[in-house]
């Protein structure tokens, strides 16, 4: 596999991971910190943040699958697995 395509896949993964981190959670989380009377469930959201975050997770997992498939050595096949677990961990942590 050409190093340029592996670099591109790594860049796609990095952007997707950044998108997961930035879009995770609710945009109204800060309000309950200021005034505890506000509950997060009182605000209506259309769910577009959840859809975009899910798309970023799928993109990150596809990029790591490409990296794992293109790796010829053992280290090049284990690293994408660790990156996939990191993407899932960031997604779960951003939901909490």
UniProtKB/TrEMBL annotation:
Spans traversing the lipid bilayer: 7-24, 51-68, 75-94
Superkingdom classification of source: Bacteria
Keywords: Membrane, Transmembrane, Transmembrane helix
Protein's UniProt name: Uncharacterized protein
Organism from which the protein derives: Peteryoungia aggregata LMG 23059
């Amino acid at each position: 596999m050409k190093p340029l395509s592996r670099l591109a896949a790594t860049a796609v993964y990095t952007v997707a991971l950044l998108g997961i981190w930035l879009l995770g959670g609710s945009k109204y989380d800060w309000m309950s910190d200021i005034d505890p009377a506000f509950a997060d469930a009182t605000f209506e959201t259309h769910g577009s943040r959840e859809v975009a975050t899910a798309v970023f997770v799928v993109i990150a997992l596809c990029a790591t699958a490409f990296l794992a498939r293109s790796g010829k050595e053992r280290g090049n096949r284990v690293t994408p697995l660790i990156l996939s677990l990191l993407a899932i961990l960031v997604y779960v942590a951003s939901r909490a």
